Amino acid sequence: QSSFRPTTIRLSKASKDLSNTSIHPTLGKDSTLPQNRPNKKNPAFEPAQYQYLVWYFFYGTLANTESLDHILGILHRAEMPVLRSSSMVDGAIKSWQGKYKALVDTPGSHADGWSYQVTSEDQEEALLIYETENYEIVRCNIKLSSTGAEMEQVVQGCTFR
After folding, report:
1. Selection from 77, 54, 12 nearest residue 139 by Cα
2. Each residue of 129-140: pLDDT tens digit?
3. For residue 33, with 0-12 CB atoms within 10 Å meaning exposed, 13-18 middle and 19 or more buried, which class applies?
4. What is the pTM of this model?
5. 3-class DSSP state for residue 47?
6. Where is this region: Disordered (predicted)?
7. Maximum distance among all Cα pairs of the chain, rounded to whole angstroms
8. Helix (H, G, I), strand (E, B) or coil at 71
9. For 91-119, how does the pLDDT look when each residue is reduced to its tens digit (9 = 90+)?
10. Strand 153-160 with 54-58, pairing
């Protein structure tokens, strides 16, 4: 009889399932409503499932450069993540279980935070694992604040809900 006992490690990561035929899932929007269905003016929905570069809106721990640096495994100072002050609409940041920040659908509301441009599937995978299965990736519109070099702009991106 063998004394071997395998170790099982459960991988808990956030889900990402962006539709290429509808806006589903988009923060604060119901994809079944007629005005949110595909049409000739808007045949494609972005960002796509495997699109990189893609802006991510962060709040809470991920909005901290040092935490993001650690999660992404960045080793060289020249590669430190650059966060840009931003806000997004149709969501509000609430408290979950008394200690975590969570973004929830709240049409008409806005939330302030920071955004980072994810450059690869590896970076995104690290973020999915960090956030765990308690969150899902959803599309959102992000308003990037102006900086000394760049003007204010609205981009289509993702966030964790």
Report:
1. 54
2. 999 898 999 999
3. exposed
4. 0.85
5. coil
6. 19-43
7. 70
8. helix
9. 999 988 888 888 999 999 999 999 999 99
10. parallel
